[in-house]
Amino acid sequence: MPFITDGEPKPVGSYPNSGIDVLIVGTGLAGLTAAIECVRKGHNVRVLERNDDINTAGDMYFMGLSATKFFKHWPEMAKEFDEISLHNAWIETFKHDGTRMIPPLKVADRLRDAGLNPDTPPGTFQMRPLVYKMYVHQVRRLGIQIQFGKRVVDYFEDEARGKAGVVTDNDERFEADVVIAADGVGSKSQKLVGGQVRAMKSGRAMWRAAFPIEHLDKNPEIKEPGTYAMTLTRPDTMIWVMNHDVTGSEKESWNHTIDADEVLANMDKGVGPSPWSSKYKDLIKLTPPNTIVNFELFWRNPQPKWASPGARVVNIGDAAHSFLPASGNGATQAIEDAVSLASCLQIGGRDNIPQSVRAHVRIRFIRNACAQKLGFSNAELLQDTDWSQVKLDPRKAQPKLPAWVWSHDPESYAYQVYDKVVENMKKGVPFDKDDSVPPNYPPGYRYEPWSIEQIMGDMKAGKTVDLGSGNWD
Ligand SMILES: Cc1cc2nc3c(=O)[nH]c(=O)nc-3n(C[C@H](O)[C@H](O)[C@H](O)COP(=O)(O)OP(=O)(O)OC[C@H]3O[C@@H](n4cnc5c(N)ncnc54)[C@H](O)[C@@H]3O)c2cc1C
User: Fold this and answer.
1) Which residue range(s) make up the domain with 145?
2) Where does the record place the FAD-binding domain (predicted)?
3) Where does a domain end: 272, 299, 326?
4) In a domain, 36, yes or no
5) Is 141 a catalytic residue?
6) What own/partner pairs with CB < 8 Å and gap ≥ 24 does 399-402 have?
7) What spacing in Å lies between the alpha carbon of 184 and ligand 1's midpoint?
8) Which residues does residue 294 pair with via DSSP β-bridges, in sequence order?
9) Residues 255 and 340 in one domain
10) Of 100, 266, 388, 398, which one is least surrounded by beta carbons within 10 A?
11) pLDDT, tens digit, for every residue of 164-208?
12) Which residues touch 7 (CB under 8 Å, ≥6 apart)?
């Protein structure tokens, strides 16, 4: 079985050994961040992954500033992130029929116009394969042990012995002081942890593809950057994303590809807005085979149960809370979770693992529920843009990227509030009445359970998404 072990572990700003054995399931962004940060916090880390290798597939996602703050501890990673990031990018916005709605503007100028510092943007669009490779390089440098081909089918905990563990499909058992379930949507830990929520069909899906830019050489007109609405053009890669109504062939899987002909036939049938510009169709025709992912979008309500009864198994990332891919927060919140949990475990130490796990969940839940709601409202905005308004005011097509999301530092926040959170837990203060802890969610917000059914009901009645109390800007 392959291990990644050829590195020399020298984390910057590292902590002494905590004696805490951590077992991580999953090598998504959540699992790999947890592995890297747990090493720095002095924990002993082992990682299990069901696949035979790290899956560097995918196209693009939005990486929020808050998720990159921990790079300051990892200079090689920070350097690589800078190298793979687009500098001097510019954006223009087109309608599906090819009409230009917002003229081209340098991203830096757009940020300056919004009163933001272009050197520290709220986040950047990144290519998943490049970010993943950057993570893999860091994992290698640290010599973190990843055991591939280990499909976890069950989780358990033994409170008396202070241990938790997993069982694989080959009946192998792995144990540790704490197990981090970073195994994505539909985590196998749900049987033990509870908190399973129903996945609701949204009726929507996305065609998305990333491929080498040379494929566009056959049609130079299409190669012009910025010809399409939802595209990212990099020097070597072309990426496009189109939202559409379900056609019957989509799946919630990043490996589920379909033919270009199917996309074109559906466009001709009037799936999604029409008429589509012929330029979009030409782009699809040039997309190489086995490249277009047809990803079905599911909604899941927020749920606060992320830890097992004895708090020795804890969900992070998509395993705890899923985001719509268009909401721009799934990767960011997954990384924040990992950084927060590694920190809480360090603060509490080996004798207080369940307390630290519960404090971490309390620190993260309301923030995530708010980010999910914001993401939902942003995704709806992208989908149902009122173009007549956009012509008048480009900000109408702009997703909200408020300071409470991007300015957050999940590591320093955990150190700032941990003691107070634990004190309030001990006093029995409910998590949604914890006014003595500074918020990491919209200032002034008071958490109230909400559901997607409610939001959809409001939207069908012509109301805008009610985000709730507090300052969400
Ligand atoms: C191949 C792939 C491509 C993606 N591409 C994009 C994209 O282009 N754009 C975008 O916005 N989002 C994409 N995502 C989703 C995005 O990465 C996540 O939503 C987000 O980063 C949260 O990550 P996560 O680590 O919580 O979950 P995930 O990224 O889903 O990672 C979960 C990991 O756990 C492993 N795993 C699952 N079940 C088990 C099990 N039973 N036993 C052992 N291991 C298990 C999986 O193989 C995977 O490595 C992609 C995800 C994947 C897996």
Assistant:
1) 1-91+120-198+302-473
2) 131-345
3) 299
4) yes
5) no
6) 399/328, 400/374, 400/472, 400/473, 401/122, 401/123, 401/328, 402/374, 402/442, 402/472, 402/473
7) 6
8) 207
9) no
10) 388
11) 999 999 999 999 999 999 999 999 999 999 977 788 887 778 889
12) 139, 140, 141, 142, 143, 144
Closest CA to 367 of 64, 128, 131, 125: 64
The answer for 195, left when phi > 0, alpha when psi is -120 to 50, beta otherwise, is left
Question: Do residues 271 and 137 share a domain?
Answer: no
Indicate the pLDDT class of residue 231, thresholds 50, 70 and 90: confident
Q: Are residues 356 and 280 in the same domain?
A: no
**46, 141, 204, 208: which is the annotated catalytic residue?**
208
Q: Do 42 and 143 lie in a common domain?
A: yes
Is the CB of residue 355 less than 8 Å from the CB of residue 421?
Answer: no
Judge if the beta carbon of residue 51 lies within 6 A of ligand 1: yes
* Alpha carbon of 427 to ligand 1 centroid (Å): 37
432 shares a domain with 310? yes
For residues 144 and 220, state if they share a domain: no
Q: How many domains does the chain have?
A: 2
ipTM: 0.96
Of 283, 299, 315, the last residue of a domain is: 299
Lowest mean pLDDT among 103-112, 122-131, 135-144, 300-309: 103-112
| Atom 5 of ligand 1, residue of closest alpha carbon | 58
Looking at ligand 1, which residue's alpha carbon is closest to its atom 31? 28
Indicate whether 276 belongs to any domain: yes
User: How sure is the predictor about 379, in pLDDT bands with cuts at 50, 70 and 90?
Assistant: low
Of 29, 147, 180, the one to substitute when testing ligand 1's pocket (max ligand atoms within 8 A of C-beta) is 29
User: How many A from CA of 322 to the centre of ligand 1?
Assistant: 11
Looking at the fold, whether 295 and 322 belong to one and the same domain comes out as no
Q: Is the CB of 85 under 6 A from ligand 1?
A: no
58 lines ligand 1 (CB under 6 A): yes
Place of tokens 């490996």: 255
Ligand 1 pocket, residue 256 CB under 6 Å? no
